[in-house]
Amino acid sequence: MPYEDMAGARHHLELEGRERLLVTGVEEVERFDEEEIVMNTTAGTLVVGGTNLHIGKLNLDGGELHVDGLIHTLLYEEQTPGQSGGLLRRLFG
Fold it and tell me: pTM value?
């Protein structure tokens, strides 16, 4: 069942095996490399850990992110006050 925050924004995770991940409700990507992708979602900050991770598709207008690679962990973390903005905000901000 998809997560809905107080504003009604939907957040959904769909993991296919351990090799493909679809995330909806993505607001911004904080940082990424082949071992970790950190993103802000409507349900909080999500950290995807793994090996050979690649962003196959990113559509922030639709809030959708596709990840390919071997996925080891999915972790929601609390955001601390004063944490810097996302990668796209830093690039285009």
Answer: 0.77
